[in-house]
Amino acid sequence: MRYDIQKLDVSHIGQLIVLQQQVVAALEDPAILQPLDEEELRYILEGNGVMIGLFDVDKMIAFRALLEPPIDDEHLAYDISYPHVDKVIYQEISNVHPAYRGQNLQQQMATLIMEYVDTTKHTMMCATVMPFNIASLKDKFAQGMYVAALKLKYGGKLRYVFAKSLVEQEQWQQEDRIIDMAQTAEQQQALREGYLGVAMYQQLDKWYVVYQKRAAKN
């Protein structure tokens, strides 16, 4: 990689805020990205997660964050029925400066940041994504994450809840169910029946999610 990689600390908060503002300003629909405010950034950087940044000389051009969340009623472990609530880490925000897009930096950072995760401490990774936030959905599926829930979060906003075990490799049955991303109730029914969202694709002007069941462990 031709950019410098740094683990970030509280001294980078100003640069993080500016980069987020630049990213939001370039979006057609700013609603698809919820920037972190100074308090949230500080919470992660003061020991409740990890954040890495990419620098072009001394200019921050991208960053990615993982969060050790507080355990509260909104915790994603409850949404995916994962019993070890304290062992869940969240994949948080990921931003790339508009001028540096198209270089696969988001995916490269996803791989790099996992080097900082202690899998004896964290065994499950979760994230939430808004339906039709195609870039973020592609990012999650590319990392091997799967849709474990589709429900209202954060005061009534519809979100996919993604999950990925950090200690086990998932195996899937061959049979699948393909559902239009716009069909919320049908996807929720599939999830209730034990299907999980493992991929997505576009056909004409529609996006579809591929649902499969876990294969039985040997």
What can you tell me about this protein's structure?
The protein has helices spanning 13-25, 38-45, 76-79, 105-113, 134-142, 184-192; strands at 4-7, 49-56, 59-67, 88-96, 124-129, 146-153, 157-165, 172-180, 195-203, 206-214. With 218 residues, it is α+β, with helices and mostly antiparallel strands. The strands form two sheets. It has a seven-stranded mixed beta sheet, with helices on both faces. Strand 6 (146-153) and strand 7 (157-165) form a beta hairpin. The chain is globular, with a radius of gyration of 17 Å.
Produce the secondary structure layout.
Layout: E1 4-7, H1 13-25, H2 38-45, E2 49-56, E3 59-67, H3 76-79, E4 88-96, H4 105-113, E5 124-129, H5 134-142, E6 146-153, E7 157-165, E8 172-180, H6 184-192, E9 195-203, E10 206-214
Parallel strand pairs: 4-5
Antiparallel strand pairs: 1-2, 2-3, 3-4, 5-7, 6-7, 8-10, 9-10
Descriptive tags:
218 residues, alpha+beta, 6 helices, 10 strands
Straight-line N-to-C gap: 39 Å
| Helix-strand topology string | EHHEEHEHEHEEEHEE
Give helix % range: 10-25%
Overall body shape: globular
Q: Roughly what fraction of the amino acids lie in strands? A: 35-45%
The tally of beta strands, per DSSP, is 10
For the largest beta sheet, what order do the strands appear in spatially?
A: 1-2-3-4-5-7-6
Q: Give the structural class.
A: alpha+beta
Mean pLDDT: 94
What low-confidence regions span 5 or more consecutive residues with pLDDT below 50? none
Secondary structure tally, helices? 6
Cα Rg = 17 Å
Report on the biggest sheet: 7 strands, mixed
